[in-house]
Amino acid sequence: MLTLNSHKKIIIWVAVITIIILSLILPINIKYNIYVKGKLLPNKEWIIYKGTDGRLTSLITNYRTGMNQSYDVTLFDRGDAMRFSFNQKLHSGSRLFVNDTVAIVYSNEIERQIENLKGEIIAAKASLSLNLTGEKEAIIEQENKTLDYSIKQSEEQKKILDRVKTLYDKGLASLEEYEIAKGTYELNVINSSISKARLQSVQTGAKKEQVSLIRSQIISLENELAILQKRFKGFTVTSPIGGVLSRKTNSDTLMSLYDNSEFVLLCPVKVSDIEFISDTARVKIKLNDKTVYARIYEKTNAVKIVNGIQIVTISADVDKAVNDLTPYLMADCYVDAGELSPVEYLVRIWQRMVN
């Protein structure tokens, strides 16, 4: 005979089995999420670190694309006195904007080269001015007098030549006397031309070719100076991105700045689960005191082995309306894998258990 307790147990089992059968038969769907661990990363990060050989390296990493956006290296000459000084107002947690001054790098060798070039440019310009203005006034005056003397000699000799020619035409002078007078006159004319050319030379200065050479030297020196000044100006380190300064304990890393305007979520997913996740699936991120949502924008094809499990990485954009998130935080994430019927749900659970 069945007791009262036996009746209750039978009723309970019948009710449970009935609920299970009905849940499997009824046209209802169950939301299916894949649980993974995710890591929050800033959109961009700027790092300055020093090498063992004294070089400074500046690196911008774009975590959204997974690429190094910029890579700059500053080298210093051996024996150069270099000093790297941070802005004293900065501290961990400081907010910086684009082009804010972060640090100043002082190089004694570069400054010395700049001053030397400035001196060479001044000397070259003075040389150009001297060649353009010609000789001193005393030399010009002397050449003027020499030219006047040559001209007067030519004029006097022309008078003598005219008289000798008249006598020669009348037969009162010999041919030799006429030729001597004519030759002397021609020599005086040549001397006058030479004096005129010398005067023009001292008045106008150097030849055009020499002036052009000096001008080209000045242009070359000014270009070299501009390059050095640009390099020296580059030693004033300014922020290429806006963000928050992060404290670093690594001895090689001098500073780190992360862009907290946007965040990226990286999640490792089993290869067997990736087929159930759409390219734009929604991800729920459970933090300590709040829930944040993200949207997948990339699924990588590169497979990695972690603890003997094949995984791929999915990347998701965190909701931009959310702020004050902590970068590099590990969080519990639930990837939306669609809605399933009760039977499909049980099958999917079983597959995940055995895989």
Topology:
Blueprint: H1 4-25, E1 30-42, E2 44-50, E3 56-62, E4 67-74, E5 82-86, E6 95-96, E7 101-107, H2 108-133, H3 137-169, H4 175-204, H5 208-233, E8 236-238, E9 243-246, E10 253-258, E11 263-270, E12 282-286, E13 291-299, E14 304-306, E15 309-318, E16 330-340, H6 342-354
Antiparallel strand pairs: 1-11, 1-16, 2-3, 2-10, 3-4, 5-7, 6-9, 7-8, 9-10, 11-15, 12-13, 12-16, 13-15, 14-15
Helix pairs in contact: 2-5, 3-4
Explain what you see:
It is a single chain. With 355 residues, the protein is α+β, with helices and mostly antiparallel strands. It has six helices and 16 strands. The strands form three sheets. A six-stranded antiparallel barrel has the order 1-11-15-13-12-16. A hairpin with a 6-residue loop joins β9 and β10. α2 runs antiparallel to α5 (208-233) and α3 (137-169) packs antiparallel against α4. The chain is rod-shaped. The mean pLDDT is 75.
Structure characteristics:
single chain, 355 residues, alpha+beta, Elongation Factor Tu (Ef-tu), domain 3, 6 helices, 42% helix, rod-shaped
Task: Give the beta-strand count.
Answer: 16
SSE string, helices as H and strands as E: HEEEEEEEHHHHEEEEEEEEEH
Shape: rod-shaped
Overall pLDDT confidence: 75
CATH superfamily of the domain at 30-42 and 261-354: Efflux pump adaptor protein, beta barrel domain
- Return the structural class: alpha+beta
Beta-strand portion reads 25-35%
